[in-house]
Structure formats: C-alpha cells, structure tokens
Design goal:
By secondary structure, the protein is an alpha/beta fold. It contains 13 helices and 8 strands. Strand 5, helix 3 and strand 6 form a beta-alpha-beta unit.
C-alpha cells in the first residue's frame, strides 16, 4: 500500500488536482502510487576516511543508526552526494550511508585523477563497510553509480543484500561514444554545438582525447572552460525537458572541474573495467542478489538498451521503465519508482 505524501513534498506530488505547480492534469497521476521523496533529514554522523596517502573521503550517515544498512553511490564519476540523496530512503528503517568518491564533492584532493580508478573505489567501499561494522548492505546507484554498484557486487557478492539501479551504464565503448562522440548529438544538436565549441575542428574526431588535453592543461582558464562545456553538455541531456537551471548549476567552477576531469579520465580508460563487456560477462555472479532496475524511457545519457541488456542477463531481476522520464534521478517518475523500490526492499 502506498504511503501518504508528506506535506513537505506535496508541492511536487498531489493526487487531487496537483495544485503544486507541475501543471499536469489529474489523469496524469491516475493509477500511479503516491510515492515521492521522504522529508529532508540531517546526518547524525559525518567524517573523513583516509584511504590512500593522497585521498581522503568525506562520508555521512543518516536515518536509523540501528537500521538496515544501505549504501548510496553517486554518479559521474565526480558528481558527489547531495542532501537530496538521503531522501530516497525511509529514515525510520534504513541506516543511510553516503560518501563522496575520490576527487568528488567534499573529498580531498578535489578533482584529482591520480590514484583514481574503479579498483581503488571498490577498495574504498570495502574500507567504509568494515569501518562501519556492516556485514551486508543494500547498494543503490544511478548512472556511473550503477556501474560501480555492479562492479562492486561482482567483486564482493557476499557483501551485497540487494541492488537498486537507475539509469544503467555498463561502461561499454558504444555507450561512451553515444554520449561523447556521436549519438545524443543528433537529438540535441544545439547543445552539442556548445560542447564542441572549445575543440578545433581538426581534433573533433576524438573528443575524448581532445578534452583530456584541455582538462589536464597547466592553464587554469583553459581547464575551466573545457570543464564547463563538458558539464553543461551532460546536464543538457539529463532531463526529459532540458533544465536551464540544472545546466547553470553544473557549470559552477568546482562542480564542473570534478565532473569533467573524472568522467573524462574514466571514460578514456574504459571505466577501468577488465574487459569492455565485463559486467554482462560476469552477471552470473549476481544471480543470487535481488536486483531492481529503474530506467527512464527517454534517457539520453544512458539509453534504455543497457538496462534491458542487464535485465536479460539477470533473469531474476525486476525492471521498471518509466514512460515520462529521462536520466535525472530527480524527475518525478523516477523519484516515484526509486522510493517505491527502497520501500519494497524493507520487507
């Protein structure tokens, strides 16, 4: 049974007339479970963990200190966590654990690509688990967070009680090419034009390398210009309806640098996965893990093909394709399904 919508978020979800400003008719909500974000919550614990001679991770916990442990893995790489990420989970039931991955958010050093790859991040997750005294946890990840969640679960299946994945990205070369070379460019040619603007025409055949050159430049002005173009492009394709506010926020100096430098670093190195199809090749190791996949039908950053391929490789998995959503976890249809998923995993 769907729980009532908290008053704090009734401006986003309402079953009778939707007076909160979305401008959608009643029929839009008919037959949909009334599930939205949980109310805002503050961490009861936060701190840092030194995971290498140069990297220090910021982490936090919220909800019920004695609750069922759940780990939130943010996207990017480089996007970092935000207060809204705590709100996908019932704070009375879950011990909600979040951290900024190497180089992201409040982790230090900011936007650092040295000693930063998927193996390091998997090792960091294990250090956090052991430090927290957790035997097994539910792992929740979207976009790159889904890639990392899957890579972690393949390496440590005994530590994962379940998976909730959104906007699935399997790290295959064609997925990277779709977003950063040719594919989404055909759907958003106006935004793509801004993306390629910093790159001379004779370098545009390999945008990943061209951006790497600029994102690692000694010139801070050139680095920032490239980072803002990269981050602005990605934000442009993240929602069903492009959101200019999101685009501007993503181009803020600090956010742009970490997102662009780390995404470029990972993508030009095959996400540091052992083989191009590593996740699907090892899907059998996940057979005993309950998995719920939530995917926007019109996700232009991580098209639904990857979510479907994963679902087919995991016969016991469930998939929810949201008909009115793109990639962003904050789109109403995705919020609804993601919170429903975390509610369902309580039993």
């Amino acid at each position: 049974m769907a729980r009532p919508i908290p008053k704090e978020i009734s401006k986003f979800f309402h079953q009778e007339g939707n007076p909160g400003g979305l401008g959608l008719p009643d029929c839009y909500f008919r037959g949909m479970p009334a599930v939205g974000f949980y109310p805002e919550i503050e961490p009861y614990r936060s701190g840092t963990l030194q995971v290498s001679p140069i990297h220090e991770l910021y982490f936090e916990e919220a909800g019920n200190p004695r609750g069922a442990p759940v780990l939130f893995l943010h996207g990017g790489p480089g996007a970092g966590i935000s207060p809204k990420h705590r709100r996908f989970f019932d704070p009375a039931h879950y011990r909600i654990m979040l951290f900024d991955q190497r180089g992201a958010g409040r982790s230090q050093p900011h936007a650092e690509i040295a000693e930063n790859d998927t193996d390091y991040l998997i090792s960091d997750i294990e250090k956090l688990r052991q430090m927290s005294g957790v035997d097994k946890w539910l792992v929740f990840g979207g976009s790159w967070g889904s890639t990392l969640a899957l890579a972690y679960a393949i390496r440590h299946p005994q530590c994962v009680s379940g998976l909730i994945l959104r906007g699935v990205f399997l790290g295959r070369p064609r997925e990277v090419r779709w977003l950063f070379q040719e594919g989404a460019s055909r759907i958003f040619p106006d935004h793509w034009e801004r993306f390629v603007l910093p790159i001379p025409l004779d370098e545009q055949a390999d945008l990943m390398q061209a951006y790497h050159k600029r994102l690692t430049s000694e010139d801070p002005v050139e680095r920032l210009r490239a980072a803002q173009a990269w981050s602005g492009w990605e934000a442009s394709v993240c929602k069903l309806i492009p959101d200019e506010n999101l685009i501007r926020e993503s181009m803020a100096d600090k956010q742009a640098l970490s997102l662009a430098r780390l995404e470029n670093h990972y993508c030009r190195n095959g996400l540091f996965l052992p083989t191009p199809n590593h996740i699907l090749e090892n899907a059998g190791k996940l057979a005993r893990i309950h998995c719920r996949i939530v995917q926007g039908r019109y996700d232009m950053a991580c098209p639904p093909e990857s979510a479907w391929d994963l679902h087919r490789a995991l016969p016991g998995s469930e998939i929810r394709i949201v008909p009115d959503a793109g990639h962003s976890a904050t789109e109403p249809g995705l919020v609804r399904e993601l919170v429903q998923a975390t509610d369902d995993f309580r039993s």
